[in-house]
Amino acid sequence: MDHRPLLFATIMCILLPMAIVPAGAGSNMGKLVINSTPPGAMVILDNRVAGTTPMVIDPVTAGWHVIVLPKSGYFTWNAKKLVKMDSTLIIEAVLTPKPATVTATPTPAYPETMTPVMTKKTPVPTKTPAVTLTPAKTPMKKPTRGFAVTRTTVNATGTKTPAR
Fold first, then answer.
1. Which of 27-31, 35-39, 101-105, 107-111 comes out lowest in average pLDDT?
2. Considering the domain 27-94 in this protein, what is its CATH number?
3. How many Å apart are CA 80 and CA 65, to the nearest integer?
4. What is the DSSP letter of 112?
5. Where exactly are the structural domains of the chain?
6. What's the confidence (pLDDT) of residue 156?
7. What is the pLDDT of residues 44-84, one digit of tens each?
8. Torsion sign, CA atoms 18, 22, 23, 26
9. Strands lying side by side in the sheet with 48-52
10. pTM for the whole structure
11. C-beta of residue 32 within 8 angstroms of C-beta of residue 65
12. What is the spatial distance between Cα 30 and Cα 84, in angstroms, rounded to a whole number?
């Protein structure tokens, strides 16, 4: 049995498309190189996790792509970049660290271990008259111990003045 026609047909199926379309012509692909400082950021390309930096995505469809690089402790880096046909796009992303967070210390379980905070008490000025009970100079109607009511006013500076 002669296998030459089958071999010829197989070769033509493989070589003929290469002869008609030269290598690289008409391909809608490019290459994407993504680096970050610091390395180890997750790479999300067009809403799909692609890996971690540094990484090379080859081939990648030519056109606009959304690249997102999240990393713990850093603000998320994102950009929309154009990958051109038959070219390599190199991205060098510098991630900005987030500010340090302040952690609160827990309150002691036993109040006796707490140090008291002393505050200076200041008098609060009042506009209402102060009532003072003083012994009566003249006896009241009943001959028992009596007290007369006198009014004094405390002004804003704290000085007392008798009411009129």
1. 107-111
2. 2.60.40.10
3. 6
4. G
5. 27-94, 130-162
6. 65
7. 999 999 999 999 999 999 999 999 999 999 999 999 999 99
8. negative
9. 48-52, 42-45, 63-69, 77-83
10. 0.48
11. yes
12. 6
